């Protein structure tokens, strides 16, 4: 899946990620295979996802990342991300109840 518009590390990650949830690879293992740190892998994967690459993640025990290949994997990823967004929005809303106590700088 080589794309000439991608950086080398992006291509390496996409070529190393397995197809399908059942073959998911942990962040640690992916970082080890590519000889880079976990934070770098996480940042690159997040950027690729923001640009529409079909990268799913399994957050259960022994989970990992994978290339989305089925409808179920796609919707599971979308629903997981939506729950995270909703949770973060609830936290922001709760914090904003106190905004009058703090001046914007």
From TrEMBL:
Q: What Gene3D superfamilies does this protein's entry cite?
A: Winged helix-like DNA-binding domain superfamily/Winged helix DNA-binding domain
InterPro entries reported for this sequence:
WH-like_DNA-bd_sf, WH_DNA-bd_sf
Q: Which organism is it from?
A: Leuconostoc fallax
Q: What is this protein called?
A: Helix-turn-helix type 11 domain-containing protein
């Amino acid at each position: 899946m080589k794309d000439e518009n991608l950086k080398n590390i992006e291509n390496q990650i996409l070529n190393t990620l397995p197809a399908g949830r059942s073959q998911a690879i942990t962040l640690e293992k992916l970082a080890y295979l590519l000889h880079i740190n976990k934070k770098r892998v996480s940042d690159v994967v997040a950027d690729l996802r923001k640009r529409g690459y079909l990268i799913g993640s399994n957050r259960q025990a022994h989970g990992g990342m994978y290339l989305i290949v089925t409808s179920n994997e796609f919707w599971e990823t979308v629903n997981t991300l939506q729950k995270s967004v909703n949770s973060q929005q609830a936290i922001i809303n709760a914090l904003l109840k106190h905004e009058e106590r703090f001046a914007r700088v």
